[in-house]
Design brief:
The structure is a homodimer of 134-residue chains. With 134 residues, the first copy, chain A, is α+β, with helices and mostly antiparallel strands. Helix content of chain A is 20%, strand content 35%. Chain A is built from 3 helices and 9 strands, in the order βαββββαβαβββ. In chain A, strands 1, 2, 3, 4, 5, 6, 7, 8 and 9 form a 9-stranded mixed beta sheet that branches. Chains A, B: InterPro entries: Glyas_Bleomycin-R_OHBP_Dase, MeMalonyl-CoA_epimerase, MMCE/EMCE_epimerase, VOC_core.
């Protein structure tokens, strides 16, 4: 069912510092910051040859990553995102096997403009797992 | 400098359970377990179209991931591994920029039989970062 690893998301307090580390120290191609107020984050994309790293910085008072950063002040990997062909078919299969879909179970439009859903970390090896319709 | 994301490593207490989740629930291609006593882990590889997930289970009394799992009993992402062309050149550039290389700074032969080194998480956005010579 799952296909490509679409991205690894790393939450940080300071996107400019993360950009310096990945662009200047690690020599990667890093995008300009992209504010996504509807998701409560500003995002920077690190374009690797085979996948992306996405750095997330809190945006606004109700950012969904603020509490995570309070627990992980140095930053930390926040989630993995896998591509699926059909998000509703994936959801139905997962729910049928007892996996918990966060946020009511209906796919929402994610940060890339495609339908996504998030799976409960306790059901997936302690890892917050996003599925995105490719 | 960094190239492909070689793998995402997830530490778990129970490789068989992780295999069931990724093979049966997520429908991915999962290898048989590979004991690596010289690294203190048993590894299962999840082969995605563009990269790998590597599940690590402690092997032996002195496994380097045992304390990590004590802190993360559900499992958790342990590190990211990026490929580099020349591990010594990468090390020299990183040390020159003030980054800390773990374990004395000399590359060692890693789990894939290639030279690797690990970078201090506090210098890399709270993420334990492995470099592997491709």
């Amino acid at each position: 069912m799952i296909g490509r690893l679409n991205h690894v998301a790393i939450a940080v307090r300071d996107l400019a510092a993360a950009t310096r580390i990945y662009r200047d120290t690690l020599g990667a191609e890093v995008s300009a910051p992209v504010p996504q107020p509807e998701h409560g984050v500003t995002v920077v994309f690190v374009n690797l040859p085979n996948t992306k790293i996405e750095f997330l910085e809190p945006l606004g008072e109700n950012s969904p990553i603020r509490a995570f950063l309070d627990r992980n002040p140095d930053g930390a990997i926040h989630h993995l995102c896998y591509e699926v062909e059909d998000i509703h078919a994936a959801r139905d299969k997962l729910v049928g096997q007892g996996a918990r879909v966060l946020g009511g179970g209906e796919p929402k439009i994610g940060a890339h403009g495609k339908p996504v859903l998030f799976l409960h970390p306790k059901d997936f090896c302690g890892t917050l797992t996003e599925l995105e319709q490719a």
